[in-house]
Each structure stands twice: as C-alpha cells, then as structure tokens.
What does this fold into?
Amino acid sequence: MLPDVRGLRGPLSCLTQARYGIAWGALGALEAVYEDALAFSKTRSTFGKPIASRQLVQTKFVDMVSDHTRGMLLAWRLAILKDQGKLNYSLVSLAKRDNVRAALLAARSAREILGGSGIVLDHPSIRHMLNLETVDTYEGTHDIHTLILGRDITGENALE
It folds into this structure.
C-alpha cells in the first residue's frame, strides 16, 4: 500500500511512472540498433560499394535519426514536466506509444540492413526487436495508448 493514497490513484501513478521509464528505455534500444547497423553498413559492400552508400539504406538511417530525435524531444519535455510536478498521464501514454513503436521500426530496419546477419545474436537488432515486441504489449499496447489519447483529445471514452 502507498501511504496517503486511496483508490486506484496509487496503482495508476505507478503505471504512469513505468511507462515514463519505458519511453526512455525504448530510445536506448533505438540507439543501439542504429549504431550497430550504421557500423555494419560501412563495412558491408555490394557491387564494390559499401551498402551505406545505397539510397534505401540511407533512407532507413534518416528515419531512425528522425524518430530518435523526435522521441528524445518528447521524453526531455516529459522530464521537465516531471521535475515541475506536472507530469500528465496522457503525455506519458503518447511517449510510450510513439517511442516504443519508433524503436521497434528501427530494429526491424536495422535487421533488414544487416541482411542474414540481422537474425543472429552477433548483432543486437534481433534481440532488441524481440524485446520491443514485448515492450509494445506490456504497460498498454499501442492501440490502448491510442484510445487513451483519443479519450483525452475528444472527451469521449472509446474504452467502454
């Protein structure tokens, strides 16, 4: 039991804090798969050129960096609000939803860049991808967070 807390407020505040941590943790996974795939792409060659020079590979890296930057800005804003005692559960839902999905997509892209090496444990992409599939589910799925945000935006509860 949490002191001076009644009803569901305590458990829900714990859930919000866990989701806050997940939003940050997902960005760490995104960084790891990005860095590994980038290093690999500079050493793996096709037709005499590193695959890092290929347009589709570069597009995947741009998407990873863009998603990471957007996620960091959101998480950083949440940290400021948390320090001010103004952390809002719906913003935490947004961060958990978007950062986990961005990290999962980055892990999938990294696995594609790595080709056959992307499914072996020599590279972290497959491990992070499988972990992120789990993270995408616990503490509320992407769809549940979408409904939480929809309720916050419209005032209508689609969860009922």
Q: What stands out?
A: Residues 73 and 157 are 28 Å apart (CA to CA). The chain has five helices and two strands. The first strand starts at residue 45 and ends at 46. The mean pLDDT is 92.
